[in-house]
Amino acid sequence: MSDKVQVSIRNLYKIFGTNPQEALRYVLGGMSKADLLKQHGHVLGLKDINVDIKEGEITVIMGLSGSGKSTLIRHLNRLIEPTSGEVFVDGDNVLDYGEDKLRELRRQVMSMVFQKFALLPHRTVAENAGTTLGVRGVAKMDYLKEADKWLDRVGLRGFGNHYPHQLSGGMQQRVGIARALTSNSPIMLMDEAFSALDPLIRTDMQDLLLELQKELHKTIVFITHDLDEALKLADHLVILKDGFVVQQGEPQHILLHPNDPYIEDFVSDINRARVLRVRSIMAPLTKGLVPTDTHGEINIDDTLESMIAKSGGDTSYTYLVTRDGNPVGTLDMSSLVLALVPRVASEEGARQY
Questions:
Q1: Hey, CA dihedral for 145, 147, 150, 151, is it positive or negative?
Q2: Residues 37, 216: contact at Cβ < 8 Å?
Q3: pTM, 2 dp
Q4: Among candidate residues 11, 7, 185, 4, the one with its CA nearest the CA of residue 88
Q5: 15 near 24, Cβ under 8 Å?
Q6: Cα dihedral angle (150, 153, 159, 163), rounded to 10 degrees?
Q7: Poorest-confidence range of 45-49, 168-172, 243-247?
Q8: CA-CA distance, 266 to 264, in Å (whole number)?
Q9: Alpha-carbon gap, residue 47 to 73, rounded angstroms
């Protein structure tokens, strides 16, 4: 991962209706989404979206149905045109692109994995995986060779000559991922890519994506309505409601510091022990002083669930936290217990004492 911003969304608005520019004036004047629909018959899809997507990271955009997440991702490759705003990719505003540059963006720079797989039924699995290269004019023999390489990587070795109807849903989605990887595009857009899968298959696909990402370091924009999935995958999490960003940031920080009652409700039922990691609640070492009276060493990315198991639930224990074998902090198990309580309940409890 790097600090380079590969995609930057600035002041993005989308209004659906017959006269969106006129409706935009009302929105900029403070009119709500509900009033815009009731009084003017227009739907506010996105409102003043500002998001930076860093190179080599997984940015997850999540929200409930109607929050605007799928609308937003379709602005990145201009499948949807905005009412107002800018979308920069590698410093260029894609809204300034003509047909040729836009075609190049979709073929060379951004690949897309859909919820419904979008495989061509009359083509083999390998031909589907190599579709983008075929469209670019790559010879069939060459793109099939490249497709087979990525089919192997996603666990579909030997299935290249099969047809989509011969595969399960999970296998078909693996073909979709192989197709995106075969295109060798630096940016992958994944719109509810795992939502149609059974829970166990969905977990397998999440693990596969994370495994591939460790090696490939793609810039991935992942859309989901599932908070568990978002917290598992995201380096940067953006939460939408009614077309605007309620909160964005590092997922662990959002879970520990929700800035809105909507977010607090969202995260209230999460298994915090399974999601939160040591790095989020540890105390950094003071002036590099390494304590000697700890109960052992733990990794900075260990889950709190694993820490509870390690300590046997003893809240008197303190552990030395390490990163790549080097001491970086300490974890007091009493701090861990507090972190397991949602913020609002924790604050109310503190006031009672």
A1: negative
A2: no
A3: 0.86
A4: 7
A5: yes
A6: -50
A7: 168-172
A8: 5
A9: 14
